[in-house]
Inverse folding.
């Protein structure tokens, strides 16, 4: 049995080769020897990345809206 952690944090997101029904107590068996960081993100890290992406998109859209107005005011001053 191998425990798979989130790519960025220590949250266990999967258990490989689980040969018994899952119970929360199984997570207590995770050790440094049987735990690896996987390629996927947990729900919390995914939500954080999505929020950061959305904020960056909104900032870029806001800047795009402001830039033409500044250029327009510069042209009218000339």
């Amino acid at each position: 049995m191998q425990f798979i952690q989130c790519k960025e944090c220590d949250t266990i997101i999967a258990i490989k080769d689980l040969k018994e029904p899952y119970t929360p107590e199984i997570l207590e068996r995770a050790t440094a020897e049987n735990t690896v960081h996987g390629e996927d993100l947990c729900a919390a890290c995914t939500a954080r990345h999505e929020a950061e992406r959305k904020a960056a998109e909104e900032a870029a859209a806001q800047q795009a809206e402001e830039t033409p107005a500044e250029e327009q005011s510069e042209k009218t001053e000339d």
Observations:
- The helical segments are 43-77.
- The chain has a mean pLDDT of 89.
